[in-house]
Specification:
- This protein is α+β, with helices and mostly antiparallel strands.
- It folds into 2 domains: 127 residues, Jelly Rolls; 86 residues, Orthogonal Bundle (Arc Repressor Mutant, subunit A), CATH 1.10.10.
- The strands form 3 sheets. The chain has a 4-stranded antiparallel beta sheet with strand order 1-8-3-6. A 4-stranded antiparallel beta sheet has the order 2-7-4-5. Strands 9-10-12-11 form a 4-stranded antiparallel beta sheet.
- α3 packs across α4.
- The longest helix has 24 residues.
């Protein structure tokens, strides 16, 4: 996403005017790749606006293993759920590229929203829209054969984070490893590898095994989308 994070129906999560107003609050903070922006379980004392870069969201499962949930790019809200319900952070957010955020401390954001009820309503509506989109995606990634689930993930990430290549191909400009794919579709990493090999043999993707940094490429986006539609 280059401008605004999308919610239900593909609409921007925040109105551009509200986004611009929020960017005038708080302070800017920059993070190196690998640095943690938000720690799971920490107090929810701020909300972040992701202005540039890329982050990965994850959470610890009951056994303590880290489970990947999503990438978040420019235009994203970070820590908004904790800001609204005042509960500890439910997930960890880590930069996977040099990242710049606008940090809005709770006191600053509280004053702004108290002075502008319409902005407060818009922010709440945006969070609900985002939750609906997240829930819909999780349901879609849990339905059907593993190969179909993987294809859905690749189609979605090609639309959100894709960089056009020669011809119809699209480079997924995010570190979507087999382990992260496995977390998203609820499968073993080995099975994900086998399914990716099948998609590669069909001429639909290139796993990027020889590329550095390693990046997946969707060679035939239309063909991959047809495979998903056929399964649906």
């Amino acid at each position: 996403m280059s401008v605004q994070e999308l919610g239900a129906g593909g609409a921007p999560v925040l109105d551009p005017d509200l986004w611009a107003a929020l960017c005038g609050l708080g302070h800017t903070s920059e993070y190196r790749s690998g640095e943690t922006l938000i720690f799971q379980g920490s107090p929810s004392e701020s909300m972040l606006l992701l202005e540039s870069g890329l982050t990965a969201v994850s959470a610890a499962d009951p056994a303590g293993a880290e489970v990947f949930l999503a990438f978040r790019g420019p235009g994203s809200l970070l820590g908004e759920f904790g800001y609204l319900d005042r509960r500890p952070r439910s997930a960890m957010v880590r930069a996977v590229a040099p990242t710049r955020c606008r940090v809005l401390p709770r006191a600053v954001l509280d004053r702004f929203l108290l002075a502008d009820p319409r902005a407060s309503q818009a922010l709440s509506a945006a969070v609900v829209a985002k939750m609906r989109a997240v829930t819909d995606r999780r349901v879609r990634y849990a339905q059907g054969r593993i190969g179909t689930r993987i294809a859905r993930v690749l189609v979605d990430h090609a639309e959100e984070f894709g960089v056009p290549g020669p011809g119809p191909e699209v480079l997924l400009d995010v570190p979507l490893s087999q382990g992260r794919l496995a977390d998203l579709v609820g499968a073993r990493t080995r099975i994900v590898g086998l399914e990716l090999a099948r998609l590669q043999a069909a001429g639909l993707v290139d796993t990027g095994y020889r590329s550095r940094p390693r990046r997946l490429r969707v060679l035939d986006p239309a063909g991959l989308a047809r495979r998903v539609l056929a399964a649906d």
